Amino acid sequence: MDIRMISFQPHGDARGQLVAVEEGKELPFSVKRVYYLYDTVSGVTRGYHAHKKLQQILICVHGSCTIRLDNGTEQALVRLDRPTEGLYVANTMWREMSDFSPDAVLLVLASELYDENDYIRNYDEFLRYVKERA
Ligand code: TYD
Predict the structure, then answer these.
(1) Which residue's CA is minimally distant from atom 4 of ligand 1?
(2) How much of the chain, in percent, has pLDDT values that exceed 70?
(3) How many other C-beta atoms lie within 10 A of the C-beta of residue 33?
(4) Bridge partners, 69 (sequence order)
(5) Is 114 exposed, middle or buried (0-12, 13-18, 19+ CB in 10 A)?
(6) Whose alpha carbon is nearest atom 2 of ligand 1?
(7) What pLDDT was estimated at residue 134?
(8) For a substitution probing ligand 1, which of 33, 34, 35, 56 has the most ligand atoms within 8 Å of its CB?
């Protein structure tokens, strides 16, 4: 499966590190929403859904976590463990997030506002949706 990682340039100096993410440069879409997951309980897996329209970039800005992606045909596991690396998640992609380290902060840049109607929360429905689009 084609996994698209986006590298962010750290602007480090003697004081520490800084990463800037700008529309039209590092990002393939305009960001309408930002959210982040933290204090994720050990052993928990989240997500279990796909989106019809929403695109996202996932950045584990602190700690680490694993993202499982499934396009209906192929699956991939991606470990996110650095603040200079983003995982692009296209629409129509089933995702599960797991193996969060206790200090993990997963930042999500999203192309759309929150819309429950954009979610596909049933895996069989997701497979049907992917087939219909093909
Ligand atoms: P949920 O969709 O269960 O998270 P995930 O699927 O990533 O594990 O979201 C948890 C709660 O947060 C749920 O009540 C919906 C709410 N929420 C918002 O209000 N706005 C948002 O942008 C997101 C992502 C979730």
Answers:
(1) 47
(2) 100
(3) 14
(4) 76, 95
(5) exposed
(6) 47
(7) 86
(8) 35
Distance CA 111, CA 49 (A): 16
Considering only CA atoms, which of 57, 62, 60, 63 is closest in space to residue 3? 57
pTM: 0.96
Neighbours of 93 (CB within 10 A): 21
Say which amino acid occupies 80.
Answer: L
pLDDT in tens, 106-115: 999 999 999 9
**Averaged over 54-65, what is the pLDDT?**
98
Kindly state if the Cβ of 47 falls inside 6 Å of ligand 1.
yes
What does the pLDDT read at residue 37?
98
Tokens of 99: 């193996």
